[in-house]
Amino acid sequence: MKKRTLALLMAGAMTASVFTGCSKQATPDPTTAATTEAAKDSEAATTEAPKTEAPTEEAKKVALNVSTTFAGEDGNAGNYQDAIKAWQAETGNTVNDSSAVSDETVKARITSDFQMGSEPDVLFYFSGADANSFIEAGKVMSIDDIRKEYPDYASNMNDDLIAPSLVDNKKYAVPVNGFWEAMFVNTEVLEAAGVDMPGADYTWEQFLADCEKIKEAGYSPIAAALGNIPHYWWEFGIFNHGTPENHCTIPESVEDERGQAWVAGINDVKDLYERGYFPKNTLSATDDDTFLMFVEGKAAFLIDGSWKVGGIAGACQSDPNDAATLDADKLNNFSVTYVPGMNDRKATDLVGGLSMGYYITKKAWDDPDKREAAVNFVEYMTSDEVVPVFAQHTASALKAAPKVDESKFNSLQVKAMEMMSGVTSLTPAVQDIFNGECRTSTFDGMPQIVTGKVATEDAVKEGLEIYHAN
Amino acid sequence: MGANIYKNKKPLFLFLVPAFAFMAIFLYYPFIQNILNSFKQIPELGAMDKGWNDPWYTNYVTMFQDENMRMALRNTLIMMVVTIIGQVGIAILLALLVDNIRVGAKFFRTVYFFPIVISATALGLMFNLIFLYDKGMVNQLLESLGRTELIDWKGENLALITMMLPVMWQYVGFYFVILITGLNNISGELYEAAAIDGATRLQRVRYISIPMLHNVMCTCVILGVTGALKVFDLPWTMFPKGIPLGETWLTGTYMYYQTFNTKNIDYSSAIAVLIVVLGIITAKVVNAIFKEKDY
After folding, report:
1. B160 at A interface, C-beta within 8 A
2. Which CATH number describes the domain made up of B56-118+171-289?
3. Global ipTM
4. Of the candidates A112, A280, A281, which has its C-beta nearest B46's C-beta?
C-alpha cells in the first residue's frame, strides 16, 4: 500500500514538473537581478543622466519589459546597456530586457508576442510595414494619445521627421538614430586602378567608365553577393529611375510608369552583372565573403548602410570588440561617398531616414503602475542627452541636436559626417514597404534575373501581384 | 502480498503519463496543428489564420508545381544515396577495420566520433573558409601547386558536391559508433570456430561480421535516410537561400526559407507535412529492402 502511495506521489510530481514551464507567474530573471544589483551599485553611469521627471517617491517601483534591437553586434548595444543601467539607477525601476539582433526571427517573435498578448511594455522597433499588424490591432499607443496625458512626451523631437504609420498615418514610434545608405570606397583600389574618388556629381556613365578601368586593373569593381544580399543594388537601381518624391510609390502593375521604372532599375543591375563588374562568385558568395573582398582590397565599391561604418572599422581592428586596437592607417584606405545618379535622381539623393523608434504598448499604458514608468523610460532614451550617443554620424529627429564632438570619431566616421553634410534628400527604402513574400521574385530571384533565366518583367510582375493580393 | 506488486500493472501507467503528456503537448499537438495550418491562409509567422485556403489543398498543388521544391526533393534524394553510401558505407568500412586492430582501437573511435560533438553551424563556417573562393584553404593549396585560376567550389557546377561532402564527413562517426557497438556484440566464439575451420580474415568478415551486423546496418540506413530529409544547419550555413541559383535546396532548408524568409507559413507547413510523410515512406521502403532478420 505504501509503495502504491509512493508511486502515485512520484507520478504526480513528474506530471506536475512537465507543466511547471507553463506557469504564468513571473519569476525573477537572474540576468535582470544582476543588472539591478549592478545598477544599484553603480554611481557613475557612462551615459550622462538627462533631466527627466523622476517618478514621485510614492510611485511604485516597477519592472518594465523592454525589447529592442540594440543587441549582439549592433554598434549601439553597449550604449543601450549603459543607458538602461543609468535609468534604473535614477528611477529605482528595473528593466527586463529581451533585446535581440534585428533579423527575421526577431520580427516573427515580436509579431507572435503581440498575437499571444505577451508583448513587452516598451518596444524599439521598425515604423514601416513590419509594425502594421500590431498597429492595426490597436496594441500600441500613438504619440498624440500619449501627449493628451503627458504633453511634453517627445516634445524635443521634430514631429515632421517622425515616420507616420502606413496603417493610419498616425505617429507611434519616437525615433533615436537614423540610417543612411551610401557607397563605401576602398581608395587603395581606386589609386591602383587610376580612378579618382567619386564626388557629389557622380553619374552612372562615369561609374561605368570607372568600373571598366578597375576591372582592367585586375580588381573587382563592386563588392556584392547578388545571390545573398542584392538589396542595396535593387533599391538604388530602382531609385535611379525615379525621384525622391515617387520612390516609395509601389507600382500598380508592371505596365505602368513606376512598374517600368522598376524593370529598368533591375535591368541596370543585370547590365552590371553582364559587364562583369560584380565578383566572379557573386551568385554563390555570401555577403560576408564579398565584404571581406572589399576590406582586403580586392573590390572597390560597396553600397551598404550607415551601420557598415562600424563594420569596416571593426575589420581594421586586431580585436573587433576593442576600438583601441584600430589600425588607423588601414582605416584611412576607406571612404564613403554618394551613389552614382541617373535621370532625375542626383547622386546626393540617398536612401535613409528614421525607420525605427520606441513604442509604448497599450498593455503598459493600461497598467496604472507601468504607465508612468514606460513614459519616463522612453523620455529618457529619447532625451537630448541620450540620442546623440546613439545617433553619432547618422541622423536624428532632435529639434536641438547638440554639436557632435568629432574628436572622438575615427577617420571613416568623420568622412561619413562630411558626406552627410552634402546630402540633398533622404528617402525611405521602398523595400521596407514592399516586404515579405512579394519581394522574393526580385530579391532571392535576382540570380535568375541577371543570368537571364527569368525575365525581369515577369519577376517584377509576380512580386507586384503578390503585394497587391495581400 | 509481496508478489502482487509485480502483477498489478496500473502504477506503470501512472509513470508513463508524464512522458506521454510531454509528447502530446510538445509534439503531437503541434504536429496536428501544423497539418491544419497547411490548409489555411496564414499571413505571417505568429499571426492568426485568415480562414481556409480556396481550395483547401492549394499548397499541395503549388508544391508539385514549384521548381525549387522539385530541386529540393531531387537534392534530398541524392543526399539519401550519399548518406547510405558515403556515411553508412564508409562507417561500415571503418568499423570493420577498427574492429580488426588490437592497438589504438579506442583512439580511432574517439577520432571518428569527434565531428559529431562539434556544432554543425561551426562546421559550416569552417568549411566555408575551406572552400572560400578567394583565399580559401583548397584554392590556396591548388595555387601552391601551380594552378592560376581560382575554382568557385560553391558555384553552379560544384555546389552540390561541396555541400554534401561536409554533411557526409560529419555523420560518418555517428554510424561508426553504432556499428562498432554492433560488432562488439558478436560472439568471439564464432570467429574462433571459423578460424579453426581455416577461414581467412576476409572470409570471417564476409560470412560472420556482415551478416551479424545486418539489423544494425538496417537501423543506420533508416536513421540516415530519414535524417537526410530534415538536414538543415550545415547546408544553410554554407548555402543560404539555395545559392547559387537555387541549386542547393534541400527539403529542410526550403521549409525554413519559406517560413522565415518569405513568411509563407501555410506553404512551409505543407512542406513540413511532406517531409514527415516522405520520412515514413522511406523508412518503410528501407525496412522492406533490408528486412530485419533473426539469428
Report:
1. no
2. 1.10.3720.10
3. 0.76
4. A112
